Amino acid sequence: MRHPWGMSRTALEKTLAAFIAVWGLAVPPARAQASHAPGPPSLDTISYLYGVNYRTPGVVSEAEPDGADISRHSIVFFHIDAWRFGSNLVDVNLRISDHAEPAAGGGTGAAEVYAILRSTLSFNKIGGTRRFTYGPLQDVGWEFGFNLQSKNSDYAANEKTLYLGPTFRFAIPRGFLTSGVHFRKEWNHNGVLGTGESYSPNLNVDANWSIPLPSGRVPLTFAGFATVNTPKGLDSFGKPTATEVLIRPRLMVDAGSFLFGSRGVLEAGGGVEYWHNVFGKRAGVVPGADQLAAFVQLTVRLTGGH
Q1: Which of 34, 45, 93, 252 stands the most exposed, by the fewest C-beta atoms within 10 Å?
Q2: HSE, side-chain direction, 13 A CA sphere, residue 20
Q3: What are the tens digits of pLDDT across the range 228-272?
Q4: CB 234 within 8 A of CB 240
Q5: What mean pLDDT comes out for the span 81-91?
């Protein structure tokens, strides 16, 4: 198997082992057998989401001058895998809006592809130790990756954002909880002005969780993420950006367990997506820069999981 960096798994492991030895992180053979903090399981899912009241900065209508309410269908492919020194994550979203957010030239709603790509190196796995396990802290890692976007609206967003920084995995009784602090650098495109955008580096703080709930005969899971981006300088219109807050909690029921007696195969539920200062645009100044949208979700597990 080859990784996105073009190396085989064996070559990558040997390179990391050499790096560890050079920097004095290697451990004696006996200690190397110590149990490591568990990583995430391998998992592939595909989800369908539908929501109303989504917003996009600058998208308005005659009846909604403060920001048009957009209905949106989404298909999401999610993959995560664990390997010897860490984990990889791929999250690809296909989003199709209704006519409230038209495609360039009109005729249909805008379509967008948004991909999140991450790789994380586990310090406990690299060192063959539990040195980074303390109290509620289960492991510390180093995460790097990109967000990539393409959209066929008039604005023609074409985001490329680098993320780099430490992550923290916490031990909880059931499920998982992680948090990270990242250096962030974004490049984008403004089709209205016909120019590229290069934003100032900024800071990202995020959290991800999935917690099974004690619910009797019907298994429930409370899951979601929260992310905060600090201001990223001036936008291509010369306007200052603001702190961006995005929170998306959801409550899912394991529908497969009572429909056909198979747990973890089919989940159904919904949640809300709260987004303040969307894309860093100032709410109250830029119409459509504040959002509270409800959505329903159906998720099918393709491989992995429990």
Answers
A1: 34
A2: 21
A3: 999 999 999 999 999 999 999 999 999 988 887 788 899 999 999
A4: yes
A5: 95
User: And the tokens for 163?
Assistant: 């993320």
pLDDT recorded at residue 50: 98
Residues 165-221 have pLDDT tens digits of 999 999 999 999 999 999 999 999 999 999 999 999 999 999 999 999 987 778 999
Strand partners, 223: 210, 250
**Contact in structure between 96 and 102 (CB atoms under 8 Å):** no
pTM: 0.84
Domains of the chain: 34-304 (2.40.230.20)
How far apart are alpha carbons 157 and 187 in whole angstroms? Answer: 10
Widest pairwise Cα distance in the chain: 71
Predicted confidence band at 40 (pLDDT cuts at 50, 70, 90)? low
The CA distance from 135 to 196, in Å, is 46
